[in-house]
Design a protein that fits this description.
The structure is a homodimer of 244-residue chains.
Chain A lengths: L4 E5 L8 E7 L4 H10 L4 E5 L2 H6 L5 E7 L2 E2 L21 E5 L3 H9 L2 E7 L4 H7 L6 E5 L8 H11 L5 E2 L1 H11 L5 H6 L1 H8 L4 H6 L10 E6 L2 E5 L1 H11 L1
Helix pairs in contact in A: 5-6
Chain lengths: 244, 244
């Protein structure tokens, strides 16, 4: 049996057809989605743009996101995952629109059979959830179309624990991951980290650098009008049981 | 005075406007061009395609290149730099067309003021030739639109010796370069290296992995009908002197 392939797309535009895509935007969209589901949101609708998110307003829905790294004035929430930690989601739905992360999720949903969301908060849970019998591509969200160090670092951390034939990009991502003693340094050193620092949001960096503190893996479960809907499949089963 | 920026485009499609572009296709196009000029070719015309190269046939010109890593049947030469070492160029012009390298040179010539060609053979000479007062982008040629480990490795070797503000991609390239004890390992491990091995051209890998054995830096000096013409500016001056 030939080995499965483990690949990394350093930008969403590099993504090819794949079995399982793991989307990473550690600063901050995939961290925000993971924390939102942990906080009790039933689902997160990942909008490709601020404008699309506005069209999805509705009862029981909360709009969240950022533009140029800052909250959108008419949205209820920004893109800070730390702000969601003690947030009362009341089982509602979040509509999230960010510059790089949610467009990457949209791109992945068009090219992969299974789309998972990864960050450092859920690293161990993610590695348990990735199917072992399909090709896997870790999709880095990048920053405004440019390579993002912090996503490449997390991609390398993931690839380093997967079996399979590694592509050139996967080998390089592992080099990046192994070059740092801990996650905080590459997150701080990255252009995204610098921007968070210069906009008074430095606390989010250390918050996003914590590893394996949440035992859940967000997954795209449907694609409504090209807006991927992300939830935790296991919780969905539990909810189904409760309604029987 | 603000620092200049040092960036890496892991694929030609990522290249933005820049002061100096250093194009790298270590396996094998930029190595071939460097060796061709060392062998006495007056210039190398870098064609975006095999078809364009054919239209440039003419007296005193030699066609060289590859398709799918193998020589093109109606071309005089392939893309093996080793084969050029004892070749008698007789001061002629080479027309080169390769899958990844020459299109990358074409892309760089459209976006940078100064375009230099780099490989391992001319590493020291290249680092002396890169202007210190402009932004620098190392442009990796990649492999069929995908990230290429061997080019990222050489990019990291170059960036590691340049001063300036490093972009996220430049930081990552340095991680790749520092992860290997010598050049042969990443060149062999790369998809391009594997393909050369499987097509009986493994000897080219070790040949391309030798460092700083040629003291010359190919540079784009003109762009004739969107075909960059590469030569050694210093030698050109020497030739001019001789004709006085």
């Amino acid at each position: 049996m030939p080995d499965t392939e483990v690949d990394v797309a350093f930008l969403p535009s590099e993504l090819r057809e794949t079995g399982t895509a793991v989307v990473v935007d550690v600063l901050r969209a995939t961290t925000t989605v993971t924390q939102a589901l942990a906080a009790g949101y039933r689902s997160v609708h990942c909008a490709p743009s601020i404008e699309t998110a506005r069209t999805l307003r509705g009862p029981g829905r909360v709009l969240a996101g950022e533009r140029h790294c800052l909250p959108v004035p008419d949205f209820e929430l920004g893109n800070s995952p730390a702000a969601l930690e003690h947030h009362d989601a009341r089982g509602g739905e979040m509509v999230l629109a960010t510059t790089n992360g949610t467009p990457a999720i949209v791109a992945a949903a068009q090219r992969a059979s299974v789309v998972l969301l990864g960050c450092l908060l859920n690293l161990d849970a993610l590695l348990t959830a990735i199917p072992s019998n399909t090709d896997v591509t870790v999709v880095c969200s990048g920053t405004d179309g440019r390579f993002a160090l912090e996503d490449a670092y997390v991609a390398g951390r993931i690839v380093d624990r997967l079996t399979g034939d590694r592509s050139d990009a996967a080998l390089a991502a592992v080099c990046v991951a192994r070059a740092y003693a801990d996650a905080l340094e590459p997150l701080r050193e990255s252009a995204d980290g610098q921007l968070l620092g210069s906009t008074g949001q430095e606390a989010d960096i250390a918050w996003c650098a914590r590893e394996s503190v949440l035992d859940l893996v967000p997954q795209v479960i449907s694609n409504e009008d090209s807006v991927p809907v992300v939830t935790i499949p296991v919780r969905r089963l539990e909810v189904s049981k409760l309604t029987i």
